Amino acid sequence: MINSLSPIKKSMFAFLAVLVVVLVYSNHFYNPFEFDDEHTIVSNAAIRSLKNIPQFFVDATTTSSLPKNQAYRPGLTTLNTIDYAIGGQALPNPFYYHLSIFCCLLLLGYCLFCFAKQLLKPCTNAVSNFLWALFLSTFFCVHTANSQTINYIIARADSFSTLMVLISFLMYLKSGYWRRYFLYLIPLVIGFSVKEPAIMFVPLLMVYQLLFEERKAIDKHPFHFSNVVVVLKRNVWPLAVIIFLFLFSQRMTPKTWDSGNTDRWSYLISQPFVIIHYFNNFFLPFNLVIDTDWEFLKTITDDRFLIGMGFLIGLGYIIYRSSQQHPLLAFGLAWFLLALAPTSSIIPLSEVLNDHRPFFAYIGLSIALVYGFIWLHQTYANRFSLTKFYSVALPVCIALHGYGTYQQNKIWSSGESVWKEATLKSPRNGRNWMNYGNALMQRAAFAEAEAAFTQASLQWPDYSYLYINTGILKSATNRPAEAEVDFLKAKSLDSQNPEWYVYYAKHLLKNKRYGEALKTVNDGLLLSPAHAGLAVLKPEVELNANHPEDINTIKLEAAIKNAKANVSPENYIELSLAYYNVGQFEACIEACQQSLRLKPDYALAYNNMCSAYNQLKQWDKAIEAGQKGLRIDPTNELLKGNLNLALTSKGK
Predict the structure, then answer these.
(1) Domains assigned to the chain
(2) Which of 89, 294, 414, 608 has the fewest C-beta atoms under 10 angstroms from its C-beta?
């Protein structure tokens, strides 16, 4: 047993904790964008300039390229814009987003450590206080269930807003002018601009005051009516602030925003059982998935509603009964329920649950769990050798969760692996099958992709996105008539989806229907002016519409002139593409080699070489180029697809 901790020992333990977190997440930094990352980051032209940041706070349409997903979250869009600028590339680079999110995770861990030290002071001595607080923060950072939030880039909204809540708590605990002038609400406001659940700081603060402050002044049950009245009076201004923030956010949200047309009653009665799922995942995180196939309950006579309500009543009873003798247990469990309230109550969302949502809530369960460990040690230390047991069990606990997170990072390493797992764990979700098909299509596995789309149609026969992607596949496999049917079906199901205008325009362009393609692009831009895909596509469509006969020749001449006038690896890549489009594949390869002489680690050059060698049926050279490119950029799906085509063709 450690009797004392010198500053050097404390530094060593802290360094070891940080090292563990770094090692656990060392394999996640190149994981690609997934799911809602596409419309909030990849295709969102609004994040392409830092100059747009002031606009985010007055125009919520900048949040996403999809009108139905344009909620008021200016802080979140600002974070995405900053990371795009740091990347310094034409397209958003997921590495810089993951790096930023991970740095915030480390800061969150430090804030949680400081917060835990304050909470645990009454039940620990100086040495155990440091060690338990360090265990709590490390355990939370490497927790396997939290890997869903850290890997899913747009879920940074959950982790960053949670960080702001912790900073508000620390500022409040500092007392002085931070508390006197309500300055501790500043991080709350920042967190709210990133995601709305940050406003739950105020209810959490009130519970904290009831359990740890008012009980000292009034000798009654912490939740006695008189105590509650006192705390309400103390928090008039904080309550006014969060009410204002909520109403202001509602006013700023565009009318186009759609939560998913979910029935409020069905959503509400589904949540008690969902909360059991979240609770279970904290202790046994084996059911994590990017997109579940849970369905909404229809009636309160459903066994799942009754079981869920029984669980909530039981949890509420434990909170009430433990609040006098075990306030930390009560506080942790109350934190868990209050943090889930915004997403698991009366506000209906499109999905009945998401495994990234309880990130904020799991801080509460972590507090309750650590207090439980401390109580067991203090109660039974004389009867059992719990000190020796904990010295082994707690590091093993962290190691197991670290291993689980490391494996989850691998699953998130590609769209194919994350969506394949989703189809296995949630096979009734048509979106999972569709996205798995999209991932297969990216590596030119068209037959497998079409099979996945067929499975998707069996589950969700009226899903607009499915028919868009089926149309893309059939267009890519030279079945234009069939593709046309699917594209038109998609539009009939949802004519307000900008993605339809992007991919249908590409289909029209491929089939030389230039006038229709131009009209489609313009109609799409009217619907979503900040859609990056439509903005990039428009000049190409206009050029084709104005010069339908010799467009590729015009492009080649311009590319040759540009490469000679401005020698750069990027201009030679453009030249290689122009040669490719006119069928001069040897010249395409030469242009790629010129680009590589200027920039030896240019993965895109190897991609174009691989594709050109495929056209020449020189499979060995194509494989060599593809493998070299993937060593430089392992996440490049286009390279993977071209390399797979070369390997498959050589095998045949």
Answers:
(1) 7-410 (no CATH), 416-546 (1.25.40.10), 563-651 (1.25.40.10)
(2) 89
